[in-house]
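=== RUN LOG ===
request id: a7f3
mode: sequence -> structure
chains: 1
length: 308
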Amino acid sequence: MRCYDHSMREAAGYCVACGNFFCTKCLVDCEDGKKYCAACCAKLNIRKTEEDTPRDSRLATRLVVRLKNGKSLQGTTYKIDPERPNFKLKPFSSTGSGEEKEIEFSKVKYVALVKSLVGDKTESKGEYQPKGSEISVTFPDGESIEGFTLKAYSDKDPRFSVIPADPSDNRISIIVERSAVSKMSLGRIPKAQELRVLADNSVKRLILHYYWQHPDLFITIDELAARLERTAAVVERELSDFMREGLIERPNPDSRQLRFTPSKDPIVRQAVASMAKDIEMLYFRRKPAAEAPSAARRPARSTPQWPL
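=== RESULT ===
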C-alpha cells in the first residue's frame, strides 16, 4: 500500500481522523497517543509529541491476529502493510511482552487493529469514515464480519480492510485475508462515499477546487493544466470521474474543450460543495496575507455560485 500523498513511498500506518494511509514522513505522533496526518493534526488543533520524546511502545498499533488454524495472537506493531506478504508482531500477554516475531498473511484469517488488547466497548467517535461499500464476510468456522470497506473494493487485492458497523466494537479496522474467506457479499455504495473518488489524490483536489470556483466555465485541457500548474497529460488522466458524474463535459470527443456543468442530482451537488469547502480550508487558506499582496488590491466583485 502506498502513501496517500506520496505514491512512490510505502505506507507506514493510517491517520485515525481521515483513515488514509501515509508514510512515516507524513504521519505525526500526537499527545493523545494517536497518529494523524499533518492536515488533520492542524485541522483538529491537536498538539504534536515533542521530537525529543523517546519512542513509546504505547504509541504502537495494537493488533489482535486470528489465524486459520483457530489460534489467536495479540500484540503491537509499528508498521503493517496489507500489500506485503508478512508483518512483524511483538506479542503481548498477561505475563508481559515477548520477542518480536514475523507473521505471514497466508496463515492469517484476519488482523484487527483494536482500541485495547483487553477489550474496549466504548463507542467510537467517528475516528474516520469508510469510503467503500457495505460488506459481509463469512469464514469457514462460521465467524462473520459486517461493516464497510475502507477503500473502494477491488477483487484483485490479496486482502482488504473492513470497518466494523458497530461503533462500540473494540476493533477499529480489520484486515481480511481473502484466501481465508468462504463467503462474501457486497452491498450498495452510499453515493456521498462513492463521490470521495473525486478528491482521492492531489490532482483531483486541484481540479475539484478549480471547478467549484468557476461555474459554467469553458476551458481547454491545456489551459486547465496551466492554471493548476500540472501537465496536460496528468490532468486529462484524472478527468474521467468528473465526466462520469456529469460535472465536466467534453462536447466534442475529438476536441480538448471542456465545460464545467452543475450536476442535476442534489446529493452530488451537496457532496461536491462539502468536499470543495474542506479542500479550501485545508489547502488554500494557509498562506499568510503577505504572500498574496495583490489579492487585497483587487476590486470587489460578485462571484458566481453553483446551485445547491
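=== NOTES ===
The first strand starts at residue 13 and ends at 14.
Residues 12 and 25 are 9 Å apart (CA to CA).
=== END ===
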